[in-house]
Amino acid sequence: MSNKQTKQANKKDNKKKESDKKKQTSMTFSLGKIFTIFAVLGIVASYYVYKVLTTTPELPNIDMNEYWGPYPMDLKQDLSIRSYKIEFSDVIVNDLRERLLHRRPFPPPLEDAGFTYGFNSNFLTRVLDYWQNSYNFKDREQFFNKYNHFKTNIQGLDIHFIHVKPNVPNTIVVPLLLLHGWPGSVREFYEIIPKLTTPTPGYNFVFEVIVPSLPGFGFSQASARPGLSPSKIAVILANLMKRIGHEHYYIQGGDFGHTVGSIMATLFPDKVLGFHTNMPTVMFNKMAYLYIFLGSFWPSLIVEPELQYRMYPLSKHIAGLLEESGYLYIQATKPDTVGIALTDSPAGLAAYILEKFSTWTNPDYKKANDGNLLAKYSLTHLLDNVMLYWASNSITTSMRMYAEAFNKKELSLQLAEIPTSVPTWGIKFKHEIAFHPDCILKLKYKNYLQSTVVEDGGHFAAFENPDILANDIFQAVDTFRQFHNQQR
């Protein structure tokens, strides 16, 4: 090869090397640029997620006078507090007995099914026979009226409530608002009321107890139009307490009573002195969901070892919730359809309500042919609660609460993500539908003072365990009072 050819070959090699070097530099630069872009996007996304998770929503505007009654509006509304008596009239009783007498035969339950397919029809026959022939309507009417009942018109609705004022000389009396849920009623509190209004050793106060029927439940009037959600009910009950004469008060609640009570503490922290809940949970809170998810990998990060079984494995508890929440999907979408069936059939109403008193007291009870309903309750007491729904014809209007609570408009308020400074205390019964550890509860309740853990009991705390719940309420309110004294 000549020198000229050699030089040309070397020149080509150099050009090729230079080109390869440029390509490599370009590729390195491109990779670096891509990495930088992804890093920036990751930082931006992380910041966005952080902001979404940690930004506190604003308190919603509150219309304290929003009208829920029928139109035309009465320009001279009666705002007085009127005495009221619960009545099981002959018309109601005779109609009920006729319906029970002429009920159709039920399909027999599957062998060894217990309550796993729903209410066992063999045991339902026993319940209905008792209701028809042995339930003493006049005696129960007197029982219901052992406490003073009242009605007053709030924002266009006649609101029913029980009001018990203790007559205890030389003892401090503090107001306590007791809130029920679904499918409960004011009946749940009958055994606990005397325990709260009677002096208890170790405490220098007793409670003046106010127990309303939530709007649309029992003898409280239902809304004439859509939109009466838990946040709106919170306003009605705040106005009720003001009407009664209480500017400051304590609240206790479970189920929807927990939801409404929590919202009242959020919206009216200057009025609510303390919030006690027997369903201490934080639903619809993004940080709570993140904690729960992370805890599924490292449970010890968020929950005490001895209580991990109440929350994990997550798949087991989610499966249980899905199995038991079919009613919720129906009531949150088409409550009136199933309401028509239950309004027309006392047998259907009893089965629909009492099945919850079995499974929500203890999920293992569904294995028994009688749902173990009589392990914790009597038929008379269970039917008292059903009777309130039947006599007031309120099952449909009560179920509408789910449609109002789980819709886009109500959830967009993000009330579960707005912290409250109101001192809060929870009691955690073993078989409550959902369990949240204290670290999650403190995301919402900034002054969450204590949890009482009970290795028994379920969803209907006041009905099932009035002694335990009453003692815990006294202890909580005593602590709330100390909390406020220390703040001064």
Automatic annotation (TrEMBL):
EC number: 3.3.2.9
Domain Epoxide hydrolase N-terminal intervals: 81-189
Basic and acidic residues bias locations: 10-22
Catalyzed reactions: 1-(4-methoxyphenyl)-N-methyl-N-[(3-methyloxetan-3-yl)methyl]methanamine + H2O = 2-{[(4-methoxybenzyl)(methyl)amino]methyl}-2-methylpropane-1,3-diol
Membrane-topology descriptor: Single-pass membrane protein
InterPro entries xref list: AB_hydrolase_fold (IPR029058), Epox_hydrolase-like (IPR000639), Epoxide_hydro_N (IPR010497), Epoxide_hydrolase (IPR016292)
Location relative to the cell: Microsome membrane
Main location: membrane
Segments forming a coiled coil: none
Keyword tags: Aromatic hydrocarbons catabolism, Hydrolase, Membrane, Transmembrane, Transmembrane helix
One Pfam family hit: EHN
Top-tier EC class: hydrolase
Biological processes annotated in GO: epoxide metabolic process
Transmembrane spans: 31-50
Annotated region (Disordered), positions in chain: 1-22
Any one GO molecular-function label of the UniProt entry: cis-stilbene-oxide hydrolase activity
UniProt entry tagged with the keyword Transmembrane helix: yes
Active site: 255, 402, 459
Protein family: Belongs to the peptidase S33 family.
Protein name according to UniProt: microsomal epoxide hydrolase
